[in-house]
């Protein structure tokens, strides 16, 4: 959905003619009670079931009208009192104007811009993710009511951050499929609301599937064929999308540009009809990434004619085309017998049903649920406070030598604030952002605590010259402490731009080292980035007292960074991705999709689940200003897995097929005591990893649960964590079949280890 231009010129023409969103109070999309001629249609009657209303509406449409509804700028049907609708809006981490469905102006000059997703994921706080979704949907509904936005938002991005160079890794919840899946479900719930079948807004999980390469070494996303085994698909790439559909009940899934195993995802019935619709029971519509149908015809040459491309997409299960392709070519495809009008009707059932669930056929927006939301509900003080809190929770303390942090307002009365991101604003909101309510830069945030001496040191993150070094070095020599705000921005990592390396750009490292050498007081390195950065030099340098990763911390990022640096907030974030050393890249082409190591090819594997080599910082790393100790108070040592009937043949390699186990309520309850033994209140993230019995299928370890708990200084909290056995203690064999290994499973929480034995049984018993 994509903010950069795709290869097809047709999309450019298409976008030029889009209608401008007015920003004024919205008239009804359809079924206007003031329109006596049209308001009486059965599809306008709320007393009738949605299925009947949809059937009535589609039955009244001509073929010409139908095909004009297959694209994102769907045409109106004036004779039925239905207006045109722009489906494409974005809300990755706040209402965005990247899509043409949303426009900031007048009563809606901006919206709350939360931290980029990779930063929010580092909080490991699922209730925070849902709360952000609720705020974003409040603001989205308010803007819809004011005529400034649609109700269909193509967010979140739940692809796996498979390769550290990926320019869009910043948009994702990180490298772990369980983390990504939980983020997907909770954020979607926040967006869509909890009013049963009624939708507050319609979310969309993207980009299905195995999409995690944009432009690397001459290979781009428009031509890439991701070769993925059944095993990797089941235990890595599918996991967040399944969670999004099954648990989050998302209203839409977007297929991606790339091919998977030789078939474009938007033309693959196995992915769209069989997996998403039949197996996961998507209650919603499937949309293409923008111009994807044109891409698989024009760029991938998957079909010989445009009519075949249109037919293949519709028959595969695509319901809506972001782009003009289906509107232009579907009628001719029907004339040639390649696809039927009934196939088009099936696609429209899915899209119109979502519009009905959103209340778009219920008359006046002001008379509907959420109809009272307006300008007062956008950028409200409570929403902006949540943006600051989200940034505080997502910031990760990577290094704190000698407890140099937090800084003291008494001891550190002057702070040298240095670096290309030291006074950054737009950089803080990452990509797929809108116009924020306001910015607080790092310089401004630190200035609230102490006198600042500001020197950029580098003109920009490229840092190609050293002319500004002298001023920065001089400032550090005068100040009581030095804060270097370095890192990346969208010129280095972005959509359509994968990184060439993992190092700080240009001469940034040189600046950091020279400033640290000259600094009179402690030197703190703050990094803004979406992806990992190899800062081994700073980790090893004793003159660099502390390292903080802020990700892209949103509109209030500077305030949150300062709150962390001065100890008003206690850092509790954990890295949602592995930070690899630069030399890792020479062993892993971005085009190799394998997650597991291949020793015969010196391929080291990917992510903490399968890679055992050296790291700069591991997945889940993050320090605090206090110390937490956790002990297991109660947990089972053995669990019997009940089977359906007599499945004597289901044990393969001492592992039971999940489909043969009675999984419904089969879970392990861990009772943990978390004690804050320090002098500062803080939040602690419990990460529970499972190490399955040895075998060729299994990861080295796998995140199976996480919980955020706030513990006051010198106090203790009891936490219960439930681990669903079939979902989280299973592994996937080479055929893509999920199985539960029998034997000893190690559950690791920090340095604490607990063994639980799983055994097949006719009746399930859990022994304490």
Automatic annotation (TrEMBL):
Major localization listed first in the record, in broad terms: secreted
* Annotated keywords: Glycoprotein, Glycosidase, Hydrolase, Secreted, Signal
Per the UniProt entry, the signal peptide is: 1-25
- InterPro entries (UniProt xref): BXL (IPR044993), Fn3-like (IPR026891), GH (IPR017853), Glyco_hydro_3_C (IPR002772), Glyco_hydro_3_C_sf (IPR036881), Glyco_hydro_3_N (IPR001764), Glyco_hydro_3_N_sf (IPR036962), Ig-like_fold (IPR013783)
The family database entries (Pfam families) matched by this protein are listed as: Fn3-like, Glyco_hydro_3, Glyco_hydro_3_C
Q: Which GO terms describe its biological process?
A: arabinan catabolic process; xylan catabolic process
Q: Which GO terms describe its cellular component?
A: extracellular region
Query: Locate the Fibronectin type III-like domain: which residues?
Result: 684-753
Recorded hits in Gene3D superfamilies, A to Z, give:
Glycoside hydrolase family 3 C-terminal domain, Glycoside hydrolase, family 3, N-terminal domain, Immunoglobulins
Q: Where in the cell is it found?
A: Secreted
Q: Name one GO molecular function term.
A: alpha-L-arabinofuranosidase activity
Q: What is this protein called?
A: Fibronectin type III-like domain-containing protein
Provide the taxonomic classification. Answer: Eukaryota, Viridiplantae, Streptophyta, Embryophyta, Tracheophyta
């Amino acid at each position: 959905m994509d903010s950069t231009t795709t290869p097809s010129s047709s999309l450019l023409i298409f976008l030029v003619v889009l209608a401008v969103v007015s920003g004024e109070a919205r008239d009804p999309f359809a079924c206007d009670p003031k329109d006596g001629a049209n308001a009486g249609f059965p599809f306008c009657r709320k007393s009738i079931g949605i299925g009947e209303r949809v059937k009535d509406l589609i039955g009244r449409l001509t073929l010409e009208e139908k095909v004009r509804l297959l694209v994102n700028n769907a045409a109106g049907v004036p004779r039925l009192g239905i207006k045109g609708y722009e489906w494409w809006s974005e809300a990755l981490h706040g209402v965005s104007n990247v899509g043409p469905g949303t426009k900031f102006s007048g009563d809606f000059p901006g919206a709350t811009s939360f931290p980029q997703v990779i930063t929010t994921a580092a909080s490991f706080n699922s209730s925070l993710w849902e709360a952000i979704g609720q705020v974003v949907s409040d603001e989205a509904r308010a803007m819809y009511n004011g005529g400034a936005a649609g109700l269909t938002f193509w967010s979140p991005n739940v692809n796996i951050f498979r390769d550290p160079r990926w320019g869009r890794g910043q948009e994702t919840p990180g490298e772990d499929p369980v983390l990504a899946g939980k983020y997907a479900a909770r954020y979607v719930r926040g967006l869509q609301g909890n009013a049963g079948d009624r939708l507050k807004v319609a979310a969309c999980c993207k980009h299905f599937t195995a999409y995690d390469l944009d432009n690397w070494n001459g290979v781009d996303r428009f031509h890439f064929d991701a070769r993925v085994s059944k095993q990797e698909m089941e235990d890595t790439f599918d996991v967040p999308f399944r969670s999004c559909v099954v648990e989050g009940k998302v209203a839409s899934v977007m297929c991606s540009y790339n091919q998977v195993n030789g078939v474009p995802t938007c033309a693959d019935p196995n992915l769209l009809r069989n997996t998403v619709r039949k197996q996961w029971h998507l209650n919603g519509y499937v949309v293409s990434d923008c111009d994807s149908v044109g891409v698989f015809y024009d760029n991938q040459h998957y079909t010989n004619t445009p009519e075949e491309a249109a037919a293949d997409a519709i028959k595969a299960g695509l319901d809506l085309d972001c782009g003009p392709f289906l509107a232009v070519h579907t009628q001719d495809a029907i004339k040639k017998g390649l696809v039927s009008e009934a196939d088009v009707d099936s696609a429209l059932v899915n899209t119109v049903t979502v519009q009905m669930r959103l209340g778009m056929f219920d008359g006046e927006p002001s008379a509907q649920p959420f109809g009272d939301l307006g300008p007062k509900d956008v950028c409200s003080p409570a929403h902006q406070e949540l943006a600051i809190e989200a940034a505080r929770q997502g910031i990760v303390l990577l290094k704190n030598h000698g407890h140099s942090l937090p800084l003291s307002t008494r001891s550190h009365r002057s702070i040298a604030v240095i670096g290309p991101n030291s006074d950054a604003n737009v950089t803080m909101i990452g990509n797929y952002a809108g116009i924020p309510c306001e910015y607080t830069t790092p310089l401004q945030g630190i200035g609230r605590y102490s006198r600042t001496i500001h020197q950029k040191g580098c003109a920009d993150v490229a840092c190609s010259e050293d002319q500004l070094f002298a001023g920065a070095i001089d400032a550090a020599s005068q100040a009581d402490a030095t804060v270097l705000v370095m890192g990346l921005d969208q010129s280095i990592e972005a959509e359509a731009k994968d990184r060439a390396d993992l190092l700080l750009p240009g001469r940034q490292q040189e600046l950091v080292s020279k400033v640290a050498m000259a600094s009179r007081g402690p030197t703190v390195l703050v990094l803004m980035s979406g992806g990992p950065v190899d800062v081994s030099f700073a980790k090893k340098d004793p003159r660099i007292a502390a390292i903080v990763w802020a990700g892209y911390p949103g509109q209030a990022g500077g305030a949150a960074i300062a709150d962390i640096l001065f100890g008003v907030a206690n850092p509790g974030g954990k890295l949602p991705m592995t930070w690899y050393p630069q030399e890792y890249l020479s062993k892993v082409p971005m085009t190799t999709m394998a997650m597991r190591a291949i020793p015969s090819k010196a391929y080291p594997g990917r992510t903490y689940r399968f890679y055992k080599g050296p790291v700069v910082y591991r997945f889940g790393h993050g320090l605090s200003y206090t110390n937490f100790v956790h002990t297991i108070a109660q947990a089972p040592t053995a669990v019997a897995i009940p089977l359906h009937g007599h499945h004597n043949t289901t044990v393969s390699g001492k592992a039971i097929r999940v489909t043969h186990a009675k999984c419904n309520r089969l879970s392990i309850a861990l009772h943990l005591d978390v004690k804050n033994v320090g002098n500062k209140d803080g939040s602690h993230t419990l990460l529970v990893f499972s190490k399955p019995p040895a075998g060729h299928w299994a990861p080295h370890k796998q995140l199976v649960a996480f919980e955020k708990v706030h513990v006051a200084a010198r106090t203790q909290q009891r936490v219960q964590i439930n681990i669903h056995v079939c979902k989280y203690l299973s592994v996937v064999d080479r055929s893509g079949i999920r199985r539960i290994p029998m034997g000893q499973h190690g559950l690791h929480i920090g340095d604490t280890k607990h063994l639980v034995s799983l055994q097949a049984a006719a009746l399930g018993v859990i022994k304490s």
